[in-house]
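Components:
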Amino acid sequence: MNRRSFLGAATTLTVGSGLLLNGCTGKGGASDGSKAGSTPLKQLDGTYIPDLPDKAMDGPVIKAGVVGCGGRGSGAAFDFLNSGDNLVIAALADVFPDRLNSLRDRLKNEKGIEVPEDKCFIGFDAYKQLIDSDLDMVLLTTPPAFRPIHFKYAVEKGKHAFMEKPILVDPTGYRTIIAASKQAEVKKLNVVVGTQRRHQRCYVEAFKKVKDGMIGEITGGNVYWNGGMLWYVDRKPEFSDMEWMIRDWVNWGWLSGDHIVEQHVHNLDVFNWFSGKKVVKATAFGDRVRRVTGDQFDFFSVDFEYEGGIHMHSMCRQIDGCSNNVSEFIQGSKGSWSSGDNTIRDLEGKELWKFDGEAEGKEHTQTNAYVLEHVDMVNHIRSNKLVNQAEAAAYSCLCAVLGRESAYTGKTITWDEISASTMNLMPENPKIGPMDMTGYVVHKPGTGK
Amino acid sequence: MTKNKHIIAWFVLGVALGISLLLAIITTYNYTSSDAYCQSCHIHTKADKSWPLSTHVNNESGVTVHCVDCHLPRKKGLHQWISKVELGVKDVYTYWTKDSASIDWESKQQLEYAVKYIPNEACKECHTNLFPKNITDEGVTAHLYYTEKEESLNLQCISCHLDAGHVMPNYAHKKLAGIPGISTSNTELFAASTPVKSFESFIEKIPGTAVSFSMKAIPAGTFQMGSSEKESFRREDEAPVREVTVSPFFMAEIEVTWDQYWAFYSETYSEGRTAPEFVYKNNSSNPDVDGISGPTPPFGFPDQGWGGVDRPAITMTYYAAETFCQWLTKKTGKLYRLPTEAEWEYAARGGTQTPYFFEGNPKTFSSQGFLHRFFEPDTAVINRYVVYQLNSKNKSKEPSQVAPNPFGLKNMLGNVMEYCSDYYQPDAYAQTDKTVKDPKGPASGEERVVRGGYYALDASEMRCAARDYTRHEQWLRTDPQQPKSIWWYSDIKGIGFRVVCEKESALTSTVNDTNKKQ
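Structure:
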C-alpha cells in the first residue's frame, strides 16, 4: 500500500472490505433454531428491512455526480455503476484536480464513461456547481466534515443522495443533517448511507432473527473495530496546511471525526439498529501511542449506557501488530448473537441459528453489500418508493462523537449535552492555504500534577 | 298494501328527517366554526385584534389560520366534536353568567391558561415538519429537544411559541436585544454609595447608576421559628418550632426591582455563552467589579412586559441572585447577600407570632376547603398587605399597592417568592438544637429555600412559616440549550429575591466613590 498517496485510501477500502464482510463467510446449514422458544416477531417500530436483489430494476437513466473523488468516491462510483443498468456518472467535483482526474480516467478506461470538462468542478464550492448541473442524484464522498453542508445543499436542490459514512463529525453537523433529512422526507428524496451492514444479507437475516425474539430481550452488547492503522500522508513542501490535512484526512479529528466516528461507527450503528434503543450517556477513555500525523487518538474504549440501564461496550483501535477483531456481539435474555461467526446461541452456548454464507454465494450473483446498498437506492428511485437512512446514520455518528468527546475530556457526557452542544469543528471559510494550526493538538483528558 | 304504503311513507319521512337533521347539524357546525361566530360571543376584543396581526394570518403565504384551527383539535371526528361541545357549553355558560368586561383577558393569554385552550395536536396537525427550510441551528436544537422530550416533560408548542396565534409583543419568540431602559425618573448618576453612620434605615445608592433603594434596619431579636400543629395548613417541614435569635441586619424594603437588576445586567452581561465552569471559577475568584461575569441575554422578555417602576425582577436563578449580591457588594463597599431562612422569617413576622404579620386565620383567607366552593373567602384584611391568587390577576404588583409589615418591609408575603441562602431540607429545623442563634441551614443540599409564596398561590402559602424550595430542573423544563441557562429560568415566573446587608460591613465601609476610582 502506498502510504504517500491519497490512492492509499482505495487500497485500504478494498482490504477493509474483506474484513467488513468476513461475517458472511460463515459455514454451516441454517439450523432453524428452537423456533418454539421464540416469541412472535416484535413490532418493527418502522425499522426498515431492505429487499436485497442482486441487481437493480431497469428504468430510465439515473445521472449521478460524485462529490469527493478519492478512494471512497471512486469506490462508491463504481459500486453505483455496478448496481444496475442505465446508470451514469455525469459530473465530478473535488478540491484537488489530481483526485478528480484519476477517477475521470478510471471511469473512461474501465466503464467507457466520459465526463465532459464542463461537468468537472474544482474547489471548496465545487459541490454547488455539481449539484446545480442537471443531476438526479449525488454521491457525497468527501472527508466527512463536509458532508452536512453538501447534503443540505443537495436536499435544497431536490437531489437523491448517497452519503458515505460517517455523515457528520460534530453536533452542529448532526443538527444540519437532521433538518435536511426531514426536508428530504417532505420532498420525497431517497437517502442511503454507506453503513452497508444494513444492506448486508448476513446482518439483515440476523436482524430478523433478533427481532423475532430468538435471543429474547436485549440486555447488553459489545462492539469492536480493533484493526490496523490506515494510512498517512507525509507533508510535502508544496502542501499548504489545508491541503496537507485534507490529503491526510483520516488522521485529523476535524475532518474525519477521529476513527471512532470515521470507522467504528459501523459497529455502533449495528447495536443501535438491532436494539432500537437510545443512548443516555457515555464514559470513555483513549489515547495515542503510534500514530504519525494528525491529532487523533489510536484507541478508544467507551461504556455506553442506554435507556433502561443497558450497557454496551465499544472498543476501537488502529494499531498494527495487535489482535484484531471487527465484529458486534449482542447479549439477550435468551441467548446471544455475534457477527463474528454470524451465529445465534442460547444461554448454554448451543447454536440456534447460523447464517449460511455458502448458500448465499450459490443463490446470489451479487453478495457485495457496497453494491447492494446502491441496488436498493436505485430501486427506490425507479419505483418511486422512499428510503431515508440519514437520521439513523446521524444518530449513530453522534453516538460516536459522544464517545469521542468523553474520551477527549475524560468526562461522562450525556446525550442531551452532546445533541445540543454548539461544538462546530469546521474552520470558518475553509480554503486551500495556511491555517492557524495551534488548535490541532492531541487532546489530554483530566489534569495532572 | 296500505300497510306497506304506510311503511314506505314512514321510511321516506324518516330518511328525509334524518337527512334534514344531518344537514342542520353540518350547517350548525360550520356556522359555529366560523371566525365571525367565535368573535360574536367572545367579547375579547384584544384577541380579535391581535389574531390578524399574528403570523397565522399576516404572513407571506396568504394563508389564514382560523380560530377553530388552533383552539380545537384539528382532526375531524368524535374527538373534535366532543372538544367543541365542551368548549361551547363553557362559552355559553360564561356568556350568560359573566360580564365579559370583568374577565381578566390579559392573564388568560399567559401560558398557564393558554395551554388549556390550545391543544398541542392542533399545532402539529399543520406543522408536520418541525425542521422546515431555512430553520436556524438554534431552531433545530430547540426542536430536537422538543421532539425528544415532548412526552417526558409535557412540552407544548406554545411553551415557546406563545405569540404564534395572537401578536403579543411581550411574549415574542426572540432573544432580548439590548439593555432594557431604567424606569426611575431620577436622571442623576450617583457618584458614591450612601455612608452609614448608625444602625438606622437608609437609602442605598448604586454608584455609577441612577438607581437607589431603601434599606430597613432590622433590630436583633428572638422569635419562635416555624409553626405549631394548631396552625391551619401547617406542613411537616415547618416543625419543630425553635427559639431562634437573630443578630441585627439591614433588609431591603422591597424585592429587588427591574431597575436594580437591569443596572446589574448592563454592567455584567455577556452576549455569548460561556461554559458555566468558567463563569463559576471567575466569579469565585473575587474579581474586581468589572470582572464579574453576569447574565447572558434572556429569551423573550423576563419582565413579561408588566411595566412599572418598582415591580420586582423575576425569573433569575439562585446563582444570578447571588451574583447580583456580589456585584452590589463591590459597587457599594457594603456586604450584601441573600437572607438566611431564619432572617427572612424573623423579618417577615416583624415581631408577631401569628400565621401572618396581620390579624386573621389562614382558613378565612384561603380558597381551599369545601365551603369555599360556595362562599368567596373574606379577603378584606389580607388584601391590604399581600399580592396573591385572589387579587393579583396572575401577575406581580408594584409595592405601592400594599401596606408594609411592622418592620416597614413590603411584600414579604406574596408578590414573588424570595430566595434564601439556606439549602432546603424538610427536616432542617430538627437538625439543630431547639434554641439556636443565627442558623444558616443544612451544610449541603440540592435545592434552595424560597419563601413568601407568589402572586398565583393561595393564602395558605402566604403564611410567615410556610416553606418552599427551588425546583431547578422543572423550572428549566423548556430550555433547549445545553448546558441549560445558569442565569434565567424558563418555566417559573413568580421567583425573585430581596437583599440583606450585614450591619458591621455597612457601618465600617468606606464609601465607594466611582469618581475616586477613576
